[in-house]
Design brief:
Strand content: 5-15%
Helix content: 40-55%
Structural class: mainly alpha
Strand order of the largest sheet: 1-2
Oligomer: single chain
Order of helices and strands: HEEHHH
Length: 97
Amino acid sequence: MGLFDFLLTAKQKKEKVATRIGLESGAFQECPVCRDVTEAGAYANYADKVAAIVDQRLILPADDDMKLFQGNREELLRSVSEVAEKLPYHCSCGDSG
C-alpha cells in the first residue's frame, strides 16, 4: 500500500488490485527501467491463468484489497480485463529510444 493510497477512489483501488493480479499472472509486464505496466501480449492467451489466480485470491484472501470486490469473481475478472484494454503494448521508455 502506497503512502497516498487513501486518496484513491474505489475504482482506482480496484484497478490497482487488478493490475497486481495481471502482473502476477504474466498477462502484464512491468518495465524494469521506467516501471510502466504494459500488456504482455494478447490478454486472451492469459485468461485461464488470470482466472486461476483470481479464484485462489478469493478463496484465500491474504490482504484487505480483495475485500473491495466482496467475493465477486466476475467483477474482479472484468476489472483485470478492463485494465488490459487500457494498457499500451510498449512502455514509454521504448518510445523515447
